[in-house]
Amino acid sequence: MRRVRFHARLLALYFAQYAKARLAYRADFAAAVLASFLGTAASFSVVLLLFSRFPHLAGWTYPEIVFLYGFSLLPYGLFSVVSSNLWDFADRYLVEGRFDRILLRPVSPLFQVLFESFRLESLQEVATGAVAIGWAVSRLPDVSPLGLALLPLWAVFGAVIYVSVFGLLTAASFWVEDRVGLAPPVFNLMSFGRYPITIYDLKVKLLLSTVIPFAFASFYPTALALGRGEFLPYFWAVPLVAVAFALLNVALWRRGIARYGSTGS
Q1: Cα–Cα–Cα angle for 162, 165, 166, nearest 5°?
Q2: Given CA atoms 241, 79, 111, 16 in this order, what sign does their dihedral have?
Q3: Residues 94 and 157 sit within 8 Å (Cβ to Cβ)
Q4: 227-243 tens-digit pLDDT
Q5: What is the DSSP letter of 90?
Q6: Which stretches of 56-122 are DSSP H helices?
Q7: Which element (helix H / strand E) includes 257?
Q8: 2, 116, 118, 257 — which has fewest CB within 10 A?
Q9: Is the pTM of this model over 0.85?
Q10: How far apart are CA 7 and CA 64, in angstroms?
Q11: What's the rounded Cα separation, in Å, for the pair 63 and 52?
């Protein structure tokens, strides 16, 4: 618990310091937020336009689709806030030699990589998702109060799953010398988890529920709120999946760091 409190305090300090520096240029930050919002609104509007023409999609109503998509923005937004250093880890930290500096500090290297910088503008995705959920709830007849109350916590678990999956892919950079990395192809699969998993064939369902568990990050967490009893076992498994992949991520990073050789620069 002492280490948890230490890292929680350190995270708060990291975030406060970065936010202070980022908000020093308010016009630039406002432009970034606007650009991020327009991107989210564009992708959301395409979904709304497409599914508004159909009263049902594989048994899912239009408000339920909005609810699903709105919730998917919560873990995705939280993930985007802390994931910027994962995308260019191989190039920035390993190739350029900045990882040596990370290893000199008495703090977890993975912790430092994740929280050295933040993409604050991605918080608008969390706000947009919350608004979409509110709109959908006002049009859904039977929404579970417990399911709604647990949504924020399950969104955090979803963000942990995203971070862990891409953390595992990033850790492969210790073995595979690739400036681009393995993350970009997998990133495109995140959008699959924003829709009912019942619309996909068996292979996609298995992929999103096992190897790359994006369905546990964005789809299954809505099961209780929407009263989808057939998915409740998966709903309660979300915390277990998050913890399992987080531990796997930490273990792989430790192995990668153990074999890391300095650039010598």
Answers
A1: 85
A2: negative
A3: no
A4: 999 999 999 999 999 99
A5: I
A6: 62-82, 84-87, 89, 99-103, 109-115
A7: helix 232-259
A8: 2
A9: yes
A10: 38
A11: 9
